[in-house]
Amino acid sequence: MLTKRRWVLSSLKSRVLCFSKDRFISTKASLLLNQANNADVAKMNHINGNPNLNIRDLGFMKSSDVSLAPNFSQFDNSQSSVNLVSSHKRDVMQLWSLLEACLHSNYMERAFSILKSLYTVQHHRSYFIDDYNFYLMKFVENCGSISELQKKVKTDLQKHFPETEYNDKTLAIMIHHALSFKSSTGKSSDEGEIANAIKTYFLMGNNGLRKIVSFVDVFTVEDYNKLYSKYNAISLMDIPPVMRPLVKDESPVNNDLVNTIIGSQRDNTHNLASDGNETADDSSAVNMNADQEVIPKLDFDATVTTVDKDASKLVAVDTIGMKVVRHTLLGLTLNENQKKKIKSFHFEADKNLLNIDEQKTIDFYELSNSLTNEAERERFEDALNEFNQDRQRALELRATNAAKERWKYDFEEAKARGDISIKKNLNVKLWEWYTKMLPYVKQEIEKCKEVMNSTEKKSTVSRQNRLRMEYAPYFTLVDPEKMCVITILELLKLNSTGGIIEGMRTARAVIAVGKAIEMEFRSEQLLKNESHIFKEIKQSQNLKRFVRSAKSRFRSIKIEQSKIIWSQPARAKIGSIMISNLINVAKIEVGGMDPVTKEKVYGEVPAFSHSYQYHNGLKLGVLKIHKSLVHQLNGERMVAAVQPQLLPMLVAPREWKNWKCGGYYYTQSTLIRSKDSPEQVAYLKAVSDAGAIDRVYHGLNVLGSTPWTVNRKIFNVISEVWNTGKPFLDIPGIQNTLNLLPPPAKDADPSIIRQWKLKNKDIANKFSSNRSVRCDSNYKLEIARAFLGEKIYFPHNLDFRGRAYPLSPHFNHLGNDMSRGLLIFWRGKQLGASGLKWLKVHLSNLYGFDKASLEDRVRFAEENMENIKDSAENPLNGKGWWKSADKPWQALSTCIELNEAFKLENPEDFISHQPVHQDGTCNGLQHYAALGGDCEGAKQVNLKPSDKPMDVYKYVANLVVERLKKEAAGGDEKAKVLQDKITRKVVKQTVMTNVYGVTYVGATFQIDKQLSDVFENRNQSLELSKYLTRHVFMAIRELFHGAHLIQDWLGECSNKISRSIRLDVNEKSFKNQNKPDFMSSVIWTTPLGLPIVQPYREGSKKQVRTNLQTVFISDPFSINPVNARRQKAGFPPNFIHSLDASHMLLSASACGEKGLDFASVHDSYWTHACDIDIMNKALRDQFVALHEVDLIQRLKNEFDERYKNYVQVTNIDRSSDLAKRIIQVRAQLSEELGHSCTLADEIQHERTRQELLNSDNPEDKKKGEEMVTSVSLTSDHITAVKEVKASAYGSMPIIIPLKLPPIPPKGNFDVQETKESLYFFS
């Protein structure tokens, strides 16, 4: 028997690290994982830029306190030291993933060998108990007696891992095993052994009984029942609140077990609950009064098939649930046709993943709108949510099977019709590929198993099997049928990506397939674990609410704990094996003419091929798709070829409460879309764990909770157009062949040949672009078709700047005009007088009549009522007024809405579902004007009240015209040509993007795009565009003078920061002792507390040899020197993006609190027409709240704090007085060192001085004050430092303290005026 004396040998030090989730950041950074202490008020008010200003903190103070903490481990030390830590992380991650794979494949011996390897990683030792518990959880599944497990754990921790101590989770696993132990004799003595073991394990805990039983990912519901009812080891209040309602409330028999344990342990529990955040007295805990009627609140989850032992009393909840759904719907006030459809409808989730067969589906949107009684509507919504929860679960977990079944169905239907011909539809082809590919994949799996089970010495293993051993543990984890489907779907999705027309990059393809297979494995494991924990529950309909709540909490815990990712090489090798098999079997039939007989003949060619091609000067491995297959991808229905992870959701998304847990329910998403940026993850994790970004979470949750549906009327119009195959508005027509211009004569002038080549290149590019657009449009339309009549949601997350994007990329409201026109709000609201006005304004805005006053916009709509009616009732064969709108599909949708409203006696009574937009006036310039206090600039972007909206683009165009007139008067020929050609449209894009850092070259091409319609000669157009760009830039700078001073200041700050070095950097940072690695990213905190880390570092790729091609892939753990040029260019626009993102999230939160349906497309905010006035007030209030702080001063203060111990290398004139003094100091230092001092030596010298100055010893402090270093000299004479170029004659490099430039003066604009601006957003 294990004794407490042996087990409890050390302090709680190892135990408090239980389930630490800081594996991806350094040990130093892990200290931040506890909630940060708030900085004192004076310090934070100083950082806010005003020591006397007491403002409402939006999240900045708490978050910046975390990321500025002295013990936060940053990523700007030397590259060698950072990469050493990264290498350790990479090694640990690879061992973790192998351990996971071996455990799930039941290769326990190899798993234990990997566990030993993990133990040898010294820096990982303190977290090793988590890895051991992971192993132990799998081991107990096949472990025999209780004594056998005790012996195993004792031997492991004493002999193999002597520096590791058990923790509370170890004890929880052992208790779970004891409870699961099935005696072979059935004697009471065995029950006594179990009871004694449980008693011993509970006594061994040092954090209390409740902490041990808090692990809901270890204990099953049956475990809790046994502990409470059978063994009387715990009380009901000891059970985590989320599990408590599922435990049978039976009066336990008193025995000494509970008295012993509770008496000695419960006093030490401190109310620990399931995750450390809930307490036993949690107000959210369920009242367990048996007499109280429990009304189930429908929430997301679904139940797995259960084994009911009393079937006469309890029926599987899925069956009950679906009967309740059907019964509820039939009880509503519906017409006979609707009731008939409901009676014949299959309410099984697996059979209703998507609306593949429209004739057999129910239009839930139509049903909802047919109900007039509010009570009935609530019942309907509850029933629909009940049904959709099961469907969403099936959609996420079983959609690959659904796609396969659809392929099979189409194949068998075609076969029954005798229609297996050259014109096979896409699904028939996919089924054939799948059936031919599957045997090869199964064969590879068997070979992998043979390799894993082989006892052959490594030296005698064949080269092929040695390579196979690297991916074999992973390759056997997922069902081969699913892997085949995933591979096919991924390759179809990647068509024409990465700049490869009619193909894809090989590296991207193999990684995408490998990662998709990994994600499938994670989803399967989550479902298996969930089924295991809840397998013994006997459910009634009333209990379903509590089961769902418990399962939801369980899933959240498992996803939050998830930290293992497969290595990139493993993903690449798995992906390459699968793609190779697909290439071998995927054939398509093509027709041609026999050159001899002139007869039509048919043959098979590969659907995919791999080769190499040059792209932007680089040789890339590519996978090409045969043109005939591309043609089918452009034209056929593809609902069975879209991955479920890319689809909208049928239920409200999982709320964001943690940085890596939100959105989909069985697929992990992270808050930030960071591409291989461990630095961003470290900062994000720290502030999230400190509870500093709750406002960010709330804003995202509001966006995700808005229900939508597909606009069937618009869909029908688009479908009619689509099926013609002809071009229409932004939809390209079907193009089968590329028709190039005939070549000129061989002896033609070279300029004519050159023009012919350029024109053909344009034709080819247009052809490829149109095919890609049509393929993308096909995806959008097929997803829209699948969700006709459904209630859908869009889960969101953020890019690294904080801007929100839907997780479902193909079809959402951020898409093009067609996508937006296809979407309306699920909930309708009565227009009222205000809503009717705003609906008219909205149509005018969409049409392009958006620079007039609101009254004139309303009048524009009213004057066009006949056109509106004609457009709505005869969109394709009428006058087509709507087609001339700037955004025609959205305009048509609004025309239909207005026409329906005016069919009523009182249009204000109409129930509207149309989203109405309020757009900012060049939102980036609005933020710049507020930051710089530009009065004229603020006026031109509508921050100041005015009688009519200002048009900043027209204003800039007029400024440019005035400049050109002056130049023309002086004889400038280019100005004479251009002065009457300048319109608002010519300058609009450049003005819009200037604030976001568009370059001179980029702006030239923007203007050339407009001028090319005026000037036929391409060279002339380009030359004039270069000339005009300079004047546009100068006009913008003239108007927004303060804003451009800030833009310049931001650029200068980022330039200095990205070329700075930490004073405490080690000498390895210097490659040759004089040339350092620049490792410092530009990092700042948004007003809502989100830390922004610019990810621009020098790239590094790792070569991985696969059986398909040698590919180069990025290392997600590597930290390389920063790319200073991109850091500088990116900071000004990224800072502004972070502000408009903060404004959007603040507005979303405010609108959510007022009960509005809210959506956004960056700086365009949407809600119901009747709620526009409420939303408008919120937008203005939140903008003022954002800018009432001097954000530039606060940024400067944050930079000063974050980079206060940094230095920079600069150059000065060697003949200057300062240079001469530094030379003397260097000579003295060289004499002390015995060699010529380097820049690294000088930094070490200054670091020594700082340590002495900060010493508590007066003698040391005095010594530090007397020391003179090259850095102290420059600190004392910083104003005398006159920088020169490094290439200048007589220049000398020196080290100076990093000193950021003073912020530019701010103008007199008062942001409070914005509250009264009618056209701020309109």
From TrEMBL:
Q: Name one GO biological process term.
A: transcription initiation at mitochondrial promoter
Record keywords: DNA-directed RNA polymerase, Mitochondrion, Nucleotidyltransferase, Transcription, Transferase, Transit peptide
Cellular component (GO) terms are: mitochondrial DNA-directed RNA polymerase complex; mitochondrial nucleoid
- Quote the catalytic activity from the record: RNA(n) + a ribonucleoside 5'-triphosphate = RNA(n+1) + diphosphate
Signal sequence range: none
Q: What Gene Ontology molecular function terms does this protein carry?
A: DNA-directed RNA polymerase activity; mitochondrial promoter sequence-specific DNA binding
Matching PROSITE patterns:
RNA_POL_PHAGE_1, RNA_POL_PHAGE_2
Task: Report the residue ranges that make up the DNA-directed RNA polymerase N-terminal domain in this protein.
Answer: 390-705
EC number(s) on record? 2.7.7.6
Say which enzyme class the record assigns.
transferase
Compartments, as annotated in UniProt: Mitochondrion
Region feature Disordered, mapped onto this chain:
1250-1269
Pfam annotation, one family: RNA_pol
The organism's place on the tree of life at top rank:
Eukaryota
> Which InterPro entries does UniProt cross-reference here?
DNA-dir_RNA_pol_helix_hairp_sf, DNA-dir_Rpol_C_phage-type, DNA-dir_Rpol_phage-type, DNA/RNA_pol_sf, RNA_POL_N_sf, RPOL_N
Q: Which family does it belong to?
A: Belongs to the phage and mitochondrial RNA polymerase family.
Task of the protein: DNA-dependent RNA polymerase catalyzes the transcription of DNA into RNA using the four ribonucleoside triphosphates as substrates.
- This chain's protein is named DNA-directed RNA polymerase
Taxonomic source organism:
Tetrapisispora phaffii (strain ATCC 24235 / CBS 4417 / NBRC 1672 / NRRL Y-8282 / UCD 70-5) (Yeast)
Q: Which gene encodes it?
A: TPHA0D00310
